[in-house]
Amino acid sequence: MEDVQIIPIPKIEDYRGNIAVVENDVIPFSVKRVYYLFDVPSGSYRGGHAHKELKQFIIAISGSFDVVLKDYKNTVKRITLNNPAKGLLITPGVWRELENFSSGAVCLVIASDVYREEDYIRDFNEFLETGKF
């Protein structure tokens, strides 16, 4: 999990409202897919998988939520995202679960590739058995 990191997003402050800009000099990969989660019911979680190759940059556009990360050694790291001017870079081989969504939270995910089911590991025991990527 040493490559997982919070990355500040350049922000242009203005009395009329701030603008945060995510360009390829902010994240270390080319963008192939963008999606967002919203209206997540209280007590629900998202994620629950790892990727073999995909990199993700996750931003709390509105509200807050926790990202629970685990590696193949079952080391756990919990990161709360609640600032739209900071994003979390998640590299391949890291299990992720998103939980504790506040009311009105919006989670933006910027991904390094299009959806490919074969890139997912959806069973945690299989993930632990797979070992380091």
Automatic annotation (TrEMBL):
Gene3D superfamilies to which the protein is assigned, alphabetical: Jelly Rolls
Species this chain originates from: Aestuariibaculum suncheonense
Pfam annotation, one family: FdtA
Chain ranges of the Sugar 3,4-ketoisomerase QdtA cupin domain: 3-130
Full protein name: WxcM-like domain-containing protein
